[in-house]
Specification:
Strand order of the largest sheet: 1-2
Oligomer: single chain
Helix content: over 70%
Distance between the termini: 72 Å
Radius of gyration: 26 Å
Largest sheet: 2 strands, antiparallel
Order of helices and strands: HHHHHHHHHHHEEHHHH
Structural class: mainly alpha
Amino acid sequence: MVVVLVQSPVPESHKQAHSPESHKQAHSPESHKEAWNRFHWLRNFVAGGVAGCCAKSTVAPLDRVKILLQAQNRHYRHLGVFSTLVEVPRKEGFLGLYKGNGAMMLRIFPYGAIQFTSFEKYRKILNVQMGFTSSAHRLLAGSMAGITAVLCTYPLDMVRARLAFQVKGDHVYEGILHAFRVIYRQEGGFKGFYHGLTPTIIGMTPYAGVSFFTFGTLKSFGLDYAPSLLGKPSADNPNVLVLKTPVNLMCGGIAGAFAQTISYPLDVARRRMQLSTLLPNSENFGSLRQTLQTVYRQDGVKRGLYRGLTLNYIRCIPSQAVAFTIYEIMRQLLHLN
């Protein structure tokens, strides 16, 4: 009796799964690169968040003074920018300059992360898929990114403004969570957290658009016409040119100053509306138009609509300079180029 042994064929998928070639492929540089690329959005998110936090921490004392002057706080309304910077530590201690900064950090990380991440996404859609020119797509993408970030983080901005406006011995809110509870209970639920959203959106459209547009245009101009003088190879990709750090700081500062000049009156109106329940004649700050008219009638252009602009130049130049520069550095550290 002859027994014939027939070896059953091994399924092709099984061969591939256990072959040396498949093992090498699973651990190949290409597979690691593919896995790394899957987290591109997350790395971009972190880069934007870190950039925003660094920028705002740099100018937190100036932000506090700006809010006090914009909304005419009764304790400091008779003072100027620099005298207020001196008076706040004397009256409230050094940490008084950072009042509300905890809420700011809770807001600014997601704000910066969403803004930079959505800008990159919108820019690609507008430029690659819709065929907008380089100038137009930067302006539109920046505006859309700013609006997206505002909508996602506005309640935190509201709470931060309320906390920063308070003066020692004259507190309404005990902290971030208490402020959330009080606003929710006393100002119409979630609607209360979005008071002043309209001027914020309207103001953010030109501000973010002009800021990203100006920085992107200056960056492209510098790298196109003076690459050896102003640029250097990216640390994570030698084939990509990036601006040198001092040039990056300068371009970011110019972008911030230009954008602030255009949108500042709307920023003043936003703060007045956010703080309306803490101000006398709060009924005059119900809408954007009404708020702008009230501020203009009461204080005029220089001391009303543009009150604190000098301080804003002082704070926005280093803030935007740091934001754009840290973002570019984080892009290299996280291999986004």
